[in-house]
Design brief:
Number of helices: 17
Keywords: Nitrogen fixation, Oxidoreductase
CATH superfamily of the largest domain: Nitrogenase molybdenum iron protein domain
GO molecular function: nitrogenase activity
Largest sheet: 6 strands, parallel
Mean pLDDT: 91
CATH architecture of the largest domain: 3-Layer(aba) Sandwich
Shape: globular
Family: Belongs to the NifD/NifK/NifE/NifN family.
Protein name: Nitrogenase iron-molybdenum cofactor biosynthesis protein NifN
Function: This protein may play a role in the biosynthesis of the prosthetic group of nitrogenase (FeMo cofactor).
Low-confidence stretches: none
Helix content: 40-55%
Strand order of the largest sheet: 1-12-11-10-13-14
Length: 456
């Protein structure tokens, strides 16, 4: 069991965590024909927009209420109403997801009351879904914003179980923010191979997977349809991934009465086994032969990869659930977690990370920890690249944002195949930095060797 230590520095240097509003925006981007709206200043939205565009290399329809000095003092209800009406008239979204920022949260506005007033004044908004979520920048991080947004969507849209008819072929899936579009697409394929129909909330695999539509769209280009969300009570089971998805999973279960299985992660042999076994039990079908072969391939990859993982020391900095998942992955492959830094302390599983101490801090704490405990690899997002250069240690990029590599949405880490891919990518990075002896390495001792007699 590790000790969780929170850094009490008065400032963050080279921050590790990404703000709550951006996490909420990413969740809203997983809804079909949606637009996320930041209730705050233009600067808050611009910063989040730049990170999202650089990570996904796609058009991100993120809007702002553009609060200024006057509205910050007198209240931003008029700006919120104007933004909603402008979006409705010019873009015609089916869903508007509003995320608050530190600016309006500090002032303490009544957002729920403001939305009721706006709807009362504008009857045309009656059939348009508008969901508000409180996501102050000064509290929580990416996982919290994603979790709170999904919780708000469930609370607003899902029809309670009393009016539902159960479909034994339909199951709900609540992926975590650390799942990529490729992860979610692979999870859908696995579920459908058992004859089940997944309702995935949110589903970025069809909105942020990097495709070009036939016509220009000013909203999201795919995602979960609101009709599917409304009828999630018809499902036979719910699968949630990551501790940060416990809150929306618990709410969904209380509204629908549907049993929930929460997976800390679905990376690794045992986690993938649990998923396949659960789907077999829910569907009543035997496990397809292809997964037996994929499992065998993963075991072989683990045997091949352990030569390069074994005895290696790694340093990981990430959001709590991603940190927990990666830590157990490296540990199971024979590596040692020398330094572990979490963006927040909002997970009870941090204490289960196989290391002596987990620091809740920033990338400066990460770099200082590596200086005190040298490692063979750094594992964090792209903001860790400067530390990698200064320390001369290779960086394996994970999480959000990754802006100096392309294809982030297509990085697969889930299930047997995803775990196999992860092993190969990391093992090759270790292999690339492995020192291979050359004749020059023995040049200093060659003269002494020649002086020694050939026979005793």
């Amino acid at each position: 069991m590790s000790i969780v230590v929170e850094n009490k520095k008065p400032e963050s240097i080279n921050p590790l965590k990404v703000s709550q509003p951006l996490g909420a925006a990413l969740a809203f981007l997983g809804i079909d024909k949606a637009i996320p709206l930041f209730h705050g200043s233009q600067g808050c939205t611009s910063f989040a927009l730049v990170l999202a565009v650089r990570h996904f290399k796609e058009t991100i329809p993120l809007q702002t209420t553009a609060m200024n000095e006057v509205s910050t003092i007198l209240g931003g209800h008029n700006h919120l109403e104007e933004a909603i009406l402008n979006l409705t008239a010019r873009v015609d979204p089916r869903f508007i997801g509003i995320a608050s920022t530190a600016l309006v949260e500090t002032r303490g506005e009544d957002y729920v009351g403001a939305l009721k007033e706006i709807r009362a004044k504008n009857p045309d908004l009656a059939n348009r879904q508008i969901t508000f979520v409180s996501t102050p920048d000064y509290n929580g991080a990416l996982e919290d914003g994603w979790s709170n947004a999904v919780t708000a969507i469930i609370d607003d849209v899902v029809i309670p179980w009393s009016t539902a008819v159960t479909s034994f072929q339909q199951i709900n899936v609540l992926p975590g923010v650390h799942q990529t579009a490729a992860d979610i697409e692979a999870l859908r394929d696995i579920i459908e191979s058992f004859g089940l129909y997944p309702v995935i909330l949110p589903d970025i695999s069809s909105s942020l997977d990097g495709h070009i539509p036939e016509n220009w769209m000013t909203t999201t280009m795919g995602g979960t349809r609101l009709e599917e969300v409304a009828h999630m009570a018809r499902s036979a089971h719910t699968i949630a991934i990551g501790e940060h998805m416990r809150k929306p999973a618990d709410l969904l279960e209380s509204l629908t009465g549907i049993p929930t299985s929460l997976f800390p992660d679905i990376t690794g042999l045992s986690a993938s086994d649990r998923l396949i076994a659960l789907l077999s039990r829910i569907s009543g079908k035997s496990i397809p032969q292809r997964y037996r072969r994929q499992r065998s391939q993963l075991v072989d990859a683990m045997l091949d990869g352990h030569f390069y993982f074994g005895g290696k020391k790694v340093a990981i900095a990430a959001d709590p659930d991603l940190l927990v998942s990666l830590s157990h992955f490296f540990h199971n492959m024979g590596a040692k977690i020398e330094v572990a830094v979490s963006s927040t302390s909002h997970s009870p599983h941090l204490k289960d990370i196989p290391t002596e101490k987990v620091i809740v801090g920033d990338l400066m704490d990460f770099e200082d920890g590596v200086r005190d405990h040298p490692v063979d690899m750094l594992v964090t997002h792209s903001h860790g690249r400067q530390a990698s250069e200064r320390l001369g240690i290779p960086l394996f990029r994970v999480g959000f944002p990754i802006f100096d590599r392309i294809g982030n949405a297509h990085s697969l880490t889930l299930g047997y195949q995803g775990t196999q891919n992860l092993i190969f990518r990391i093992a090759n990075l270790f292999l690339e930095k492995t020192h291979h002896p050359k004749p020059a390495d023995f040049a200093d001792n060659s003269a002494d060797i020649l002086k020694e007699p050939l026979y005793a």
